[in-house]
Amino acid sequence: MEFPAVGNLNTAGSLNNAGTNGYYWSSVQSSSGSAYNMGFDNSSVNMNSGSNKPDGFSVRCVRQEFTALILTHKRYLI
User: Fold this and answer.
1) What is the pLDDT of residues 21-39, one digit of tens each?
2) On the chain, which terminus has fewer CB atoms closer than 10 Å, C or N?
3) How far apart are CA 70 and CA 20, in angstroms?
């Protein structure tokens, strides 16, 4: 599975970090105004919580089993 490094749109509508970083929303929100997401650059992958929904991250449909595999793998990398 590929997750392109497409960056994100900031709240002013400008594109940030295109080609170097990728940010993808989870389907799980952490509050009414924020949600969990995955962010990566050329050296790390991080699961984040509390990112504001207006941040303009990408969405990619992923099967439930694949998501659980990523989270399990990340837990053992810490």
Assistant:
1) 999 988 888 888 888 888 9
2) C
3) 21
Select from 16, 1, 77, 17 the least CA-distant residue to 45: 77
Which residue, among 65, 1, 7, has the nearest Cα to 39 in the 3D structure? 7
Q: What are phi and psi of 42, to 5 degrees?
A: -75, -5
Backbone φ and ψ for 15, nearest 5 degrees, come out as -85, 130
Q: Could you tell me whether strands 45-52 and 34-40 are parallel, antiparallel, or unpaired per DSSP bridges?
A: antiparallel
pTM: predicted TM-score of the whole model, two decimal places: 0.71
User: Which residues have CB under 8 Å from 56's CB, separation 6+?
Assistant: 8, 9, 10, 11
pLDDT band at 68 (very low <50, low <70, confident <90, very high): low
